[in-house]
What we know:
By secondary structure, the protein is of the alpha+beta class.
Amino acid sequence: MIEFSETELTAAVVDSFKDTPNPRAKFLLQELVKSLHHYVLKTELTFEEWELAIDFLTRTGQKCTPIRQEFILLSDVLGVSMLVDAVNHRDRGGATQTTVLGPFYVGEHKVMPHGTDISAALPGERLFVQSRVTDVQGKPLAGVAVDVWHADDSGHYDSQRANYLDEGASSRARFMTDADGRFFFRTILPFSYPVPTDGPVGELIGATRRPAMRPAHIHFLAVAPGYEPLVTHVFMAGDPNIECDVVFGVKHELIAKIEKRTDAAMPDGKPAGSSPWHLMTYEFRIKPGGGTAPKPLAAKATEAA
Length: 305
Ligand code: BEZ
Ligand code: FE
């Protein structure tokens, strides 16, 4: 048959993939066709709407550069990234919950001594972060590489600055856990911030009257041989945007209460310098397994070139 009715078309397109050699690719493509066809039938999509969608996706692709991934942002704001995260991390087995990596992980974090102020040159309320990495039984893990990165008190990441390459990193570092699995550092309180809104995804957010904000958080990536890499954030309790994260990345277990302190010294015994200051205490549990640590966008672009 060469002519198909509305109801026969889906089966014909699904069947057209029947000789795909890779079984997983065949399954993924056939299911994609079924879902797309179902959407068109259910919504009775008009030509104008279809053209608008094609134009939107075209512009989303055109907005991408080696360090800007508008498609990932689209996936984030449609909740697809968190759904992929969810189906791949169903059984945490006591390990810390995961969330999105986000576009501001640039890799090549410099290893810094414990206690370093990673935002020394920046204004903002001072924060001491004390943490530990253990296995799921609570055994401290030494020598775990923990990358941390967060926005400043205006809600921007260092890598968003035009002069980032000359000025270098701030609010970004790597710490290696000590014999007790501990690491600690000084920084500033991060602020909530909008995701980039100067592209098609921003248009979508604006046109649908959605808030573009992410609640204040610090990103953590813990990597140790023999363990599943942990990609997560810790959110600041009380942030007004905690209930409306534009990328749906908040999980209750990842919200930390931040204590306001006035002691003259921080937990490492060194002077606080200013008062009040804030204390964040949070422990991470990682589970045995493999998998490679996520790569930053720029590294992927270099590999592809
Ligand atoms: C972030 O947390 O850095 C982020 C995550 C998803 C989209 C935009 C930003
Ligand atoms: Fe972030």
